[in-house]
């Protein structure tokens, strides 16, 4: 189970209408700053772009796992955004991305926290039933039920 300090029902937004990568990163960065995961909006926002330059964080079937790792992030966090509009994201299957599982990773202890969170979520996304249920979720409660059961190990 994921610790409620890292992820809870307030960490989920469904039915948003963002148009591009900049808007997605701005929305996610605002969440992390407003909820005290990070102190500096500009740094966490730029952190998402820095990571994206290393390679796309979009997987397949409309799912992406953008993440930012900076000194401004004080505690790890997970934020889920389900956008109504598919966004070009250089995904592995060349399909638009609309379901984002965003990670905020403190620079301190980053390698351990980052790898644990990222690998645990990525492993679950290989499970076709889990992925289908996540993509087809209709509300925050359904998303929370699925994500909260992911074991971070």
UniProtKB/TrEMBL annotation:
GO terms for molecular function: protein kinase activator activity; protein-N(PI)-phosphohistidine-sugar phosphotransferase activity. It comes from the Bacteria. Transmembrane segments: none annotated. Residues 5-150 form the PTS EIIA type-2 domain. InterPro entries: PTrfase/Anion_transptr (IPR016152), PTS_EIIA_type-2_dom (IPR002178), PTS_IIA_fruc (IPR004715), PTS_SugarTrans_NitroReg (IPR051541). Keywords: Phosphoprotein, Phosphotransferase system, Sugar transport, Transferase, Transport. It holds the Pfam family PTS_EIIA_2. GO terms for cellular component: membrane. GO terms for biological process: phosphoenolpyruvate-dependent sugar phosphotransferase system. This is PTS sugar transporter subunit IIA. It comes from Spiroplasma tabanidicola.
């Amino acid at each position: 189970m994921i610790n409620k300090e890292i992820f809870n029902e307030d960490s989920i937004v469904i039915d948003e209408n963002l148009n591009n990568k900049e808007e997605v990163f701005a929305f996610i960065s605002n969440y992390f700053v407003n909820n005290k995961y990070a102190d500096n909006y500009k740094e966490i926002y730029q952190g998402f772009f820095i990571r994206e330059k290393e390679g796309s964080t979009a997987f397949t079937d409309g799912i992406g796992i953008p993440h930012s790792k900076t000194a401004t992030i004080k505690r790890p966090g997970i934020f889920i955004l389900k956008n109504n509009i598919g966004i070009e994201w250089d995904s592995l299957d060349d399909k638009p991305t609309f379901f984002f599982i965003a990670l905020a990773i403190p620079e301190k202890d980053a390698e351990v926290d980052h790898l644990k969170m990222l690998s645990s979520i990525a492993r679950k996304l290989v499970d076709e039933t889990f992925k289908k249920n996540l993509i087809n979720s209709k509300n925050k409660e359904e998303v929370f039920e699925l994500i909260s059961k992911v074991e971070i190990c």
